[in-house]
Protein: Capsule synthesis protein CapA domain-containing protein
Organism: Anaerobacillus arseniciselenatis
Amino acid sequence: MKKFTIIVLSLILLVGLLSSFVYFLQGDQTKPSDTLQLSEQLVQFNGKLRNDIGIDVIDEVEPQVSRATISGVGDLLIAISIITDARQADGTYNFKPMFEHVKPYISNADIAFANQETILGGEELGLSGYPLFNSPYEVGDAVIDAGFDVVSIANNHTLDKGEQGVLNAIDYYNSTELIYTGAYKSEEDRAAIRTIEQNGITFSFLAYSYGTNGMPIPSGKDYLINLIDVDVINKDIVAAKEVSDMVVLSLHFGNEYELMPNETQKMLVQEFSKAGADIIFGHHPHVLQPMEWIEREDGSRTFVAYSLGNFLSGQVGIEREIGGIVQLEVEKTAFRDEVSFQLKDPRFLPTFTYKQNWRQYKIYPLHEIDDERILKNADEHLQNTKQHVSQWMPELKFSFE
């Protein structure tokens, strides 16, 4: 392209020199109108080049590039032991210390997402553990303090405390700046697509669950939870694409405790990638599953994390205690009348949830653990985790530096 521009500029210079030479030979015979006519021809020539092949001989337009990072974590599964550990002498709760070691990595992103597995129904509904979860509002305070911006509340525990639990949680979220998606208080609430703009890039957030553990949805109130329905989700993706640049889709799906995605998960992400989902965060298996790219016909691609595992939970077993933070960069390039987007630089930071006799809960970056009392053979677990999640994405990095 530069070569062609140099040739064109050389031709224009040659025309200019020839016209000057003719003017010298003719002396006063060359009229000012002749020079003016030549200038007009050059302007028309430049305009024709611009219109025909997109090259402006006179002006060089530089592409305008902007970037935003988005991170995601898996399940915040607040068991009764975690609630008891957070209880203060005055009867209030403080979950913030549990996040203190990972807070710098969460707040590092422009936008951070989490799956709020347990409904923030408030203590007035009665605190409970599996299979019916209910969390104090202070869980949300800790989530905000850690740096999260948006949570999915569409999962199999959404209706554990019935309609009132959902409404209580939404009242809490509406009193804060924490955005919720996946369960709603009305049809109008559901129709309002959640968006966040960062650095000139707009992200939309959709969330759906495979079911509700058999808890019935009140008649005529399907808006209380988004269930996975291919046709509905495809329509929602199209609608979200109209108001955003990047569609972030949260799917509560798969088989619990299985390390690899099943065929249904694979089929669904292919379907929703085709519909326009750009980033898919999966959860429900409570263990990590691999990440991969899905190539689309237009040359773009979808990032998929089939399961981000547990981020904070009381579950036992190393595979259920290791989760992580995934981070992506979205790059926007504006050049003349065209705007394009690219997902770049995928990273994953493995984490470990520590507890001692069902107390002292803390989430640690796995690579920072060098105390055998926290986790034996931490480096071995780190290497195994890296190999597992990156087996379909060799370029995945494991540092946020």
Q: What stands out?
A: The longest strand covers residues 338-356. The mean pLDDT is 89. The chain has two domains: 1-53, 64-390. The radius of gyration is 28 Å.
